[in-house]
Amino acid sequence: MTRSRIPRCRVRLAANALAAFAACLAAVAAPFRLGAQVAVPTDDEAVTVFLVRHAERLDDSPNSPLNDVGRERVEKLRTLLADVDFTHVHSTSLTRTLDTARPIAEDDGVELIIYSPGELEQLAETIRATPGRHLVSGHSNTTPQLAEALGGDPHGPIDHMEYDRLYIIVIQPGRPAVTTLLRF
Q1: Could you report the per-residue pLDDT of 148-167, keeping only the tens digit for each?
Q2: Which of 144, 135, 50 shows the shortest CA–CA distance to 98?
Q3: Tens of pLDDT along 23-51?
Q4: Secondary structure of the chain in HEC code, one letter for each residue
Q5: Roughly how many angstroms between the first and final C-alpha of the chain, as a whole number?
Q6: In CATH terms, is domain 5-31+41-183 a member of 3.40.50.1240?
Q7: From the CB of residue 174, how many other CB atoms can be counted at a distance below 10 Å?
Q8: Against a cut of 0.85, is the pTM above it?
Q9: What are phi and psi of 110, to 5 degrees?
Q10: What is the domain partition of the chain in residue ranges?
Q11: Long-range residue pairs from 99-102, CB within 8 A, at least 24 positions apart, any chain
C-alpha cells in the first residue's frame, strides 16, 4: 500500500521534529562541565530505539492477528516513522507483532529479525552493541521491561487495552539513555 503524499508532508515534519526533540533531550541529559569539550557522537556510535507494543488484536487467542483498528494503527505508525530509515527491525514470532513491524521493515528494505520475548536481556545487549535505528515490536508485558533493560524509563506497566505508546530511547556511548514517551 502506498502512502499519500499530502499527509506524509505533515508527518515528515512531525518525524523530523521527533528526531530533533530526541537529540535535544540526549544533549541536555549529558553531563557537562564548564569549559569542558563535549564530544558529539557520530551517527555510527549512537543507537536509537523505537519500542512499540503490537497494535490492537482481533481476539485473546494466543496467536491473534490484528483487527481493523490495529491495521489502521499500523498505518499511523508507518506514516509517523516514514522518515526514520530504520537499520534494524525486531519482532517476536507472533502474528500481531509481525504484522505491526513487517510493513515498516518492508518500507525501509530491512530484514525483519525475530527475537524471543523470554530473552530480553540478550536482545537489549545486542541492540546496545549495534549502532543505528531500531524498531522493536513487542507485547504489553515485555515492552516496558525492554525499555528498562536498555537503560530507559519504562513509564510503568502497559494496560491490557493500551496500544498507543511509542518509546524513543537514545543511547549514546558514555551517557545515560534518554527516554521519550509519545502517544500515537
Answers
A1: 999 999 999 999 999 999 99
A2: 135
A3: 444 443 433 333 333 334 455 589 999 99
A4: CCCCHHHHHHHHHHHHHHHHHHHHHHHHHCCCCCCCCCCCCCCCCCEEEEEEECCCECCCCCCCCECHHHHHHHHHHHHHCCCCCCCEEEECCCHHHHHHHHHHHHHHCCCEEECCCCCHHHHHHHHHCCCEEEEEEECCCCHHHHHHHCCCCCCCCCCCCCCCEEEEEEECCCCCCEEEEEEC
A5: 20
A6: yes
A7: 9
A8: no
A9: -115, 155
A10: 5-31+41-183
A11: 99/54, 99/55, 99/65, 99/66, 99/70, 99/71, 99/74, 100/52, 100/54, 100/55, 100/66, 100/70, 100/74, 100/137, 101/135, 101/136, 101/137
**Res 19: pLDDT:** 52
49-87 pLDDT, tens digit each: 999 999 999 999 999 999 999 999 999 999 999 999 999
Residues recorded for the chain:
184
Residue type, 158: I
Please give the radius of gyration of the chain, using alpha carbons only, rounded to the nearest integer: 16
